[in-house]
Amino acid sequence: MNQLIECVPNFSEGRNLHVIKQITDAIESVDGVKLLNVDPGKATNRTVVTFVGSPDAVIEAAFRGVKKASEVIDMSKHHGEHPRFGATDVCPLVPVANITMEETIVYARKLAQRIGEELGIHVYCYEFAAFSEERKSLAYCRSGEYEGLPKKLKDPQGKPDFGPTEFNAKSGATAVSARNFLIAYNVNLNTTSVRRANAIAFDVRESGRVLREGDPITGKLIKDENGNSIRIPGTLKKVRAIGWFIEEYGVAQISMNLTDITVTSIHEAFEAVCKSAHDRGMRVTGSELIGLIPLKAMLEAGKYFLRKQQRSVGVSNDEIIKIAIKSMGLDELAPFNPKERIIEYLLEDESKLLRTKSLTEFMFETASESPAPGGGSISAYVGSLGAALGGMVANLSAHKRGWDDRWEDFSDWAEQAKAFQVKLLGLVDEDTNAFNQIMNAYGLPKSTVEEKIVRDEAIQTATIQAIETPLGVMDAAYNSLEVIRQMAEHGNPNSVSDAGVGALCARTAVQGAYLNVMINLKELKDEASSKGFKHRAEELLYQAEMKEQEILKIVYEKIG
Fold this sequence. Notes:
The chain folds into three domains: 175 residues, Formiminotransferase-cyclodeaminase, Chain B, domain 1 (2-Layer Sandwich), CATH 3.30.990; 161 residues, Formiminotransferase, C-terminal subdomain (Alpha-Beta Plaits, 2-Layer Sandwich); 210 residues, Four Helix Bundle (Hemerythrin (Met), subunit A) (Up-down Bundle). The chain contains 17 helices and 13 strands. The strands form three sheets. Strands 1, 2, 3, 4, 5, 6 and 7 form a seven-stranded mixed β-sheet that branches. The mean pLDDT is 93.
């Protein structure tokens, strides 16, 4: 799975669209990034840009955006309502998919160093990328704003993490961070009272409410011995919330910022508001997501509500997301289209993927004069069908009347089966890509000695990929056989033949991928690697055949 990072730079220009366009053009000039949103604000004189892509591509695009901003924005002439201290005021990186925060911190500091050294801009690292505890706070880093930079730079405590200490009057400073994904999320209530909505907001937000005598709204503040107001914390960590009335919809809402969805998820926030509303005599009618959300967050929400229903979570992502939307009422105020609201879906170009074609299209694409997709992709697809049959038996068993006390076990098996389905389905395209890489390598020029060396190296690299991909098919298909065996032995007896067909598919996938490994081994010059690949392939083939026979024995015994 590809790693994805989101970048949300804030540029100190919100009025001149020509200037903004120059910056976003610079960002979009990098292959591998997709511009998701550009949100200029006239009053703040500030534009928030959102783009996403692979880590290296995002770092390059962010650098180009910062560079262009330093060329077209003059901070000595800037005025706006929002706190700021640089042409690129902040540039946070957010891990979205298949990348850890620790890895994202490395990329953030790499970007910060490059901005400081190559562009001569003062850079302060904040939040997770900070080098000191106090600099985790953006407000601390930006204190004094642009106008206070000359004085700050002369103070050893104000020295930037990267870049010069001589004041850069035109570009100012930039704060670079790694932070968790922030979600703007509103929950709708069956009331028009802002006061009642605020009561719920105070219940759930981390800062809670101040303690008062008598009336919780108008009563006298209760203070500690130091004269500070005493606060009653709310139930949700990393959540800011307020109640307001939305005239457009005619209802009150709890408007929340979930500043770290690894601490408080969207479904946890929804449930907390539901509980507070119920306790106060109100009811949640739905909710509203502002902007985009990672796929993982939607899947976690859907699985949460499926488990509450004691239903299997090993179903398709589309079904899980549908449950999340309906459970939280995300479509109450406006249609909720996952293809437009989930980051990963926005990045996916389905037209280029074999796995998104219809069965008929895939069949005729295979039958065409093109050598790809071929046996490798078909092996992967057959394997995904075998895992799908194992998952189907698990889901049927989880839903079987009289087996209610066993639903969770079958749900776990179904989820394992789905993981193999997804892996094998991805390998359908990877196998074709591996073949294309070999063809591209053979097409490289070979007129000179240097060109021949580059070409030979490219062929060997592509050949290894063309071996490792079907080995991945063999490995995933073989491991799926354990799920299928469990379903043949313990699953819904009415579906035991389906488990048998699943076993046949899985073994076919292993054997088909084995053929792919063997034919590509002929082109590999490294004998040691060749022997290792061959041994692994032969071992998986033997184990898969033994496991298939074990499963078929169970199936035949049950069907007589």
